[in-house]
Amino acid sequence: MQFTTTVPETIDLAIIGAGPHALTLTTHLLQKRQSIRGKFSVFDPSGKWMSRFLQQFAALEIPHLRSPAVHHPDPNPFALRKFAESRPNELFPPYDLPGTQLFADFCEDVIQVRQLQEQVIPLAVKSIEPLPHHLRSRFRLCLQDEQIVIARRVVLATGSAQIQIPDWVNQIQTSYPQDRLCHSQTIDLRKLHLIGKRVLVVGGGLTSGHLAVGAIARGAKVHLLIRRQLAEKLFDAEPGWLGPKYLKDFFAQSDCEQRVIMIQQARNGGSMTPAIATQLRQQVRSGNIRIDENCQVVKAEWLGENWRVECNDGSQYECDYIWLSTGTKFDVTTEPLLRDILAAYPIPIVKGLPVLDTCLRWPGCELFIMGGLAALQVGPTARNLSGARMACEKIVPAIVKPSVAFSPSVTGVKAG
Ligand SMILES: Cc1cc2nc3c(=O)[nH]c(=O)nc-3n(C[C@H](O)[C@H](O)[C@H](O)COP(=O)(O)OP(=O)(O)OC[C@H]3O[C@@H](n4cnc5c(N)ncnc54)[C@H](O)[C@@H]3O)c2cc1C
Question: Which residue of 36, 129, 171, 332 lies most exposed, with the fewest beta carbons within 10 A?
């Protein structure tokens, strides 16, 4: 077979994914040890850094980030603020939230300054198989084009979020056109014409707000259904979770079940920023959106031209599109890339989250995990940009100094 992209047969470190977490890791590794250059490879089917992140912002026409300007992939927290000196109107109130274009340009600068443009191998990793070992662990990565790479260490930075689909969707009896019921991750507002259409948006997070605003801008009438009350919060978790204020108690808690509860309480379902909530209220007054709180869909039926939807309070509505903004979940047991690792090195799992060691390493082998799956050791912001920096503080010392011993972060946990 002929391969269009040649990859090295063996590598020291394979980083899977080229999103903001992988970029943050790469900049931190290079800062700590320049000699790591040439020893690692990054895999992402897009062949580019940050592609999924930027695509999501573009598809939902998100004007700026939710997180303040200190959160970004450069090791220097002030680097983005410095970069923005000539573009002050692209930092949005109340806490200098970087505009989407500013953030994209900044990341491009981070990539160019370190000459990382050519680092991403444009192939997905299909499987990670641990090889039998005596002294050193190794992995056999099978790539999307069937090429095989042997890696001594692996960092999984694929985002790993799985979309959450409510039960009533799976119970829909009739077949329906796919574009009439979509999850937020597959919606691209830029491609839609919605004049005169009725769009039902399900969910109360910031993404619901972006979808509602985007649909209205395209001439739709929106009905927003939130199973709880519309929650207004600046950030998805309190800033106290970025430092010792809350993390001290989190790490002092050795029971992972309790940690999961702390994570859930800290994130507390979806919330919208006050700015988006204000926009929605204005649209309520203009008659473009109706917001129903404490309301859940129980049944949806495709009538051939449009939907009929039934809610738990007995109310019924008709609409043309249903958009699910019902979030994502992290579950290590359903992550295909971890299937062989889980079989070879069974470890405790609590509510879908693996109990990693304090370096975010899978106990027993040299595989590290970043992002939402590392939440038991990073805290509620593990999936966010801030979580990437926090993950690096734990992973980088273990990678540049492989002798850092395995240290279980918690004791007495039940196997999942
Ligand atoms: C709409 C939206 C807005 C957000 N805004 C903010 C914000 O303002 N501030 C904040 O802190 N957080 C924000 N987040 C949360 C978080 O920062 C992002 O989800 C971020 O993209 C997570 O980065 P990541 O690198 O873990 O994952 P991703 O950005 O998803 O990158 C993972 C990469 O891995 C690649 N990949 C997947 N599988 C494979 C495979 N098998 N082989 C090779 N490559 C693979 C994908 O192609 C992708 O490019 C937002 C999230 C969303 C969805």
Answer: 171
Token output for 252: 């002092």
Amino acid letter for position 95: Y
Nearest atom within ligand 1 for CA of residue 371: 26
Q: What is the pTM of this model?
A: 0.95
Same-domain pairing of 227 and 294: yes
Whether 243 is covered by a domain: the verdict is no
> Is 194 part of a structural domain of the chain?
yes
What are the tens digits of pLDDT across the range 7-35?
999 999 999 999 999 999 999 999 999 99
CATH code of the domain containing 396:
3.50.50.60
Q: Which residues sit opposite 328 in a β-bridge?
A: 163
pLDDT band at 408 (very low <50, low <70, confident <90, very high): very low
Assess whether 342 and 322 both reside in one domain: no
Q: Is residue 9 packed enough to be buried (19+ CB in 10 Å), middle (13-18) or exposed (0-12)?
A: exposed
Whether residue 321 is contained in a domain is answered as: yes
Tally of domains within the chain: 2
Does 361 sit in the ligand 1 pocket, CB within 6 Å? no
Burial of 326 by CB count in 10 Å (0-12 exposed, 13-18 middle, 19+ buried)? Answer: buried
What range does the domain containing 214 cover?
164-236+271-327
Paired sense of beta strands 198-202 and 328-329, if any:
unpaired
Same domain, 228 and 305: yes
How far, in Å, from the CA of 347 to the mean position of ligand 1? 25
Tell me what pLDDT residue 303 has: 97
Say how far apart CA 413 and CA 108 lie, in whole Å: 42
